[in-house]
Design brief:
The protein is of the alpha/beta class. The protein has helices spanning about 50-60, 70-80, 100-110, 130-140, and strands at about 5-10, 30, 35, 40-45, 60-70, 90-95, 120-125, 140-145.
Length: about 160
């Protein structure tokens, strides 16, 4: 079945930092793919992320974000990096349960009249440990472990069918 929705994790999946919730203002832009917070913590967007998100949008794929971070920090970092515009639904929570976040994303799409089956959904995360509950509670979602199942973001484009 064709993939209609791709849901990304953020930390260690879209960028190299492990926890953007700890970032403190002011945040300095080093370049379009790199920022630094008040304490010198740096974050760098992984190669191919922007191009892959743009290509997914061109293909009509709905993009979601499910991240274990404080919502205000997620929104701020996505806006500073100019990545916010790519995501149709963003769910950022202060708990690690990705299956709950993915369910929220799919529910929000249903509320907008977009019905998505589990097998039409792809979830990309750097931690395989989240996949068990995704499958248990949500069904046959295609889960992809970043850096193990794929080595770069552009490989996602070849996994859509």
């Amino acid at each position: 079945m064709k993939i209609k929705v791709v849901i990304f994790d953020a930390d260690k999946t879209l960028w190299d930092h492990y926890n953007i919730s700890e970032f403190e203002d002011p945040i300095k832009i080093i370049n379009k793919n790199e920022i630094e917070d008040a304490k010198g913590r740096k974050l760098k967007v992984f190669p191919d992320v922007r191009e892959t998100l743009e290509e997914l949008k061109k293909k009509g794929i709905i993009l979601g974000l499910a991240t274990w971070n404080y919502p205000d920090k997620t929104q701020k970092i996505l806006q500073i990096l100019d990545l916010y515009k790519y995501f149709d639904v963003i769910v950022s929570r202060d708990f690690p349960y990705k299956f709950i976040m993915i369910n929220e994303i799919l529910s929000e799409l249903r509320n907008k009249g977009i019905k998505i089956k589990p097998e039409e959904t792809m979830f990309i995360d750097d931690r395989r440990s989240h996949f068990g509950n995704v499958w248990l509670y949500l069904g046959n979602i295609k889960c992809v472990e970043m850096w193990k199942d794929i080595k770069c973001h552009s490989e996602i484009l070849h996994m859509l069918d």
